[in-house]
């Protein structure tokens, strides 16, 4: 939601959040959802992008897409410094893979 709110604040005219379930199922903070709506972000519930296609009708038209993954709290317990080190190591692998993908992408 923060990404959507930031896009609005930086001049994007329309921002939609597509959510595969209903409003009651959003794991984010309810106040954050309300502030996001107040900022002008529109929510589309029970929608799940399956494929990005060009030049077609009767679909959700857009000129750009930001894919975001929820960062809701999980029941993860840090039991030692080793747990933190392992999490950082795996995060770096993921970040490097994302960077490789983005650098290789050409529209």
Describe the fold and architecture.
- The protein is mostly helical.
- The chain is built from three helices and two strands; from the N terminus they run αβαβα.
- The chain has helices at residues 2-9, 30-38, 81-104, and strands at residues 16-19, 42-45.
- β1 (16-19), α2 (30-38) and β2 (42-45) form a beta-alpha-beta unit.
- The mean pLDDT is 81.
Summarize the structure in short:
This protein is mainly α. It has 3 helices and 2 strands; from the N terminus they run H-E-H-E-H.
Structural class by sheet pairing and helices = mainly alpha
What oligomeric state do these chains adopt?
single chain
Percentage of residues in DSSP E strands: 5-15%
List the domain count as a whole number: 1
């Amino acid at each position: 939601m923060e990404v959507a709110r930031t896009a609005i604040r930086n001049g994007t005219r329309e921002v939609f959040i597509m959510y595969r379930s209903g409003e009651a199922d959003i794991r984010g903070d309810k106040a954050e959802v309300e502030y996001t709506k107040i900022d002008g972000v529109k929510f589309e519930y029970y929608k799940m992008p399956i494929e990005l296609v060009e030049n077609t009708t009767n679909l959700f038209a857009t000129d750009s897409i930001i894919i975001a993954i929820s960062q809701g709290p999980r029941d993860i317990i840090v039991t030692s410094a080793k747990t933190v080190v392992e999490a950082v190591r795996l995060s770096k692998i993921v970040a490097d893979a994302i960077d490789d993908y983005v650098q290789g992408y050409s529209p």
